[in-house]
Amino acid sequence: MIDIIQVIVSSPFLQRALFAAVLVAVIAAASGTFLVFRGLSFMASGVAHAALGGTALGIFLQESGLVPWFDPILGALLFSILVAAFTGYAGESGITQKMEVAVGVSFALSMSLAVFLMYYIPPYRVPQIWGYLVGDILLLNDFDIIMLMSTAVLLGVITLMFNKEFVYVSVDMEGSVAHGMNARMYHYAMLIVSALAIALATKAVGAILVYAILVAPAAASNELVKSVRGVIFSVFLIALIAELIGLITSFVVYVSPSAIAGILAALSYILALQIRRVRERVQTEIEETSLAPEDLVETFNQSITIEQKGDHNHEH
Amino acid sequence: MATTPLLEAQNLAVRYPNGELALHNVSFTIKSPSFMAIIGPNGSGKSTLVKAALGLIKPFRGTIKVLGYDSVKQASKIRKQIRYVPQRDRIELAVPMKVKDIVLMGRLLKKLPPRIASSKDIEIARDALRQVNMDSLWNHPFPELSGGQRQRVLVARALAGEGSVLVLDEPLAGTDVESQDLIVEALGRYHRENDVSIIMITHDLNPIHTLVQDVLLLKNTVIGIGEPCSIMEPELIKKVYGPTAKIVEHSGHRYCLTRDSGFDRHD
After folding, report:
1. Chain A residue with minimal CA distance to B98?
2. Per-residue pLDDT tens for B176-191?
3. Is the separation of the CB atoms in A57 and A79 below 8 Å?
4. Chain A CB within 8 Å of residue B97 CB
5. Closest chain A residue to B142, measured at CA
6. pLDDT mean over A292-300
7. Which ipTM was obtained for this model?
8. pLDDT tens column, A146-179
9. Which residue has the higher pLDDT, A143 or B137?
10. Which of A48, B106, B151, B247 would give a disulfide with B161, using CB separation of 3.0 to 4.6 Å?
11. Interface of A with B (CB under 8 A)
12. Is residue A241 part of a domain?
């Protein structure tokens, strides 16, 4: 144990990785929770892949000399905002199905664009694009951490301030508008800030893991926890634990920390479903026994005995 | 002295989101305050009329005013006065809301962020729940309630709110008898004891026809307007609900028999 702590203290990679794990857990708690509430979990995946398309565009613009100052991360952020805005526009009336279609279309578009641009990007930079798909939490630099931290803080503050509004938009968009709340503004704010956070988290842990970390803990918590605050807190814990175990395992065994964290996050959802099922079974058993109150049982017994007496007389 | 009318529509036409014409040539005036019902079969444009009045849908032609405010230009003024309960299935159940959260929503939506509930808000919310006999479930998860109970909580949300106009979209659809009685009783009492107007969309006028003062009968346009008994004319009802609809008289009141379920949606 002391050895591990010494390694952590002496290794800046590990320090950054641990810090990133906490930040990604914050993003999952703030953003993943509300995406799951809105039935928009797919957007986490859509935005993560759009970030990949944006990165491809950024590298292309840099390498082709068209816009040399264009950092690939700008492309990722730009694309994720576009996906969020497009999704938001499709869902202004508060209908989730329309938003899911919008996410699907932008997902397909940005992935196609990424593959298209790959043919025009020098081969040595292609792995950078794929890096967005798999990600490596151990390879983050200081700039990545600063970016991730600023969005996590921004997202955290916005969620603390406007969590009621985000909940109201998710629960009853129409009613919120009719009561005079600027639901449209909160609707877009929630989607765009989430998208920015997802794009930066994608760089840290990869598109596939972002989806696992953002969605699975939130879905798991939503099965079991019965208050909004409780869900947010529980998502943070599950996400953090999954990532920490992933990091620790990667020291003991030769394995990608992201892969372990993703598997654990997904397992948490399966476990939550099982717990819920067991809980429901216990509850119905209790209800069944309480379904027959004493007076009803008595009436039932009386009716049986009367019937039996009747039969008895009949035989005579 | 003439007061500002509660609702005033002039040559109003509204389209559904899919482009189909929901309402056309709608012109009417309802005085204020009133307990009014908007009735008509599925797809007759009842919800659309109300959404147009609240500025949720823009009219395709004509205007509608609420308390003298234009639904498009002065929507924010209208919304200050409105407490709205949409159709029950519009409430998303994936969010772990408690009963108290839903009722407090009625008060907090009219506040500014961070929308913190004061002890007065909580007291009023509890009292509203008491009106519909749901106060014992204050801390209960909302999605786990039965349909009728959920509807009662939503009505309590409107009772707890502020604003002089309560708008309820099908608050009696798919409810059990107990919930129906409690809702009708609570709304009637609230209207008597407070200076508020209630606009209620319903497919079934029978449970409330002794309470309501004005009835608007719709089938994509105004078919009838007036007191409940003047609307309960066999000819009018047949025109709207088809030849199987009947009017029955029982202990001095007219009742309307239709085969309408009360569930309709137009996305």
Report:
1. A227
2. 989 999 999 999 999 9
3. yes
4. yes
5. A226
6. 65
7. 0.89
8. 988 998 999 999 998 999 999 999 999 999 999 9
9. B137
10. B106
11. 36-39, 93-95, 161-162, 164-165, 167-168, 170-172, 174-181, 222, 225-228, 230-231
12. yes
In this complex, the residue of B90, B95, B114 whose CB is nearest that of residue A174 is B90
Which alpha helices (DSSP H) does chain A contain, by range?
2-10, 12-27, 33-37, 42-63, 72-90, 96-118, 126-134, 142-171, 173-178, 183-205, 207-224, 228-252, 257-290, 294-315
The verdict on residue A316 lying in a domain is: no
The CATH number covering residue A191 comes to: 1.10.3470.10
What is the torsional sign of CA B177, B179, B182, B184?
negative
Is B208 contained in some domain?
A: yes
Rg (C-alpha) for chain B, rounded Å, is 18
Distance separating alpha carbons of residues A2 and A194, to the nearest angstrom: 38
In a domain, B233, yes or no: yes
Number of domains in chain B: 1
Tally the domains of chain A.
1
Residues of B in contact with A90 (CB under 8 A): none
Q: Are B183 and B172 in contact (CB under 8 A)?
A: yes
pLDDT at B83: 95
CB contact under 8 A, A172 and B141: no
Provide the strand spans (E) within chain B: 7-15, 21-30, 35-39, 61-66, 69-70, 82-85, 165-169, 197-202, 214-218, 222-226, 246-250, 253-257
Nearest to A4 by CA among A245, A259, A237, A204: A245
**Quick one: tokens of B120?**
């007065």
In angstroms, the first-to-last Cα distance of chain B is: 42
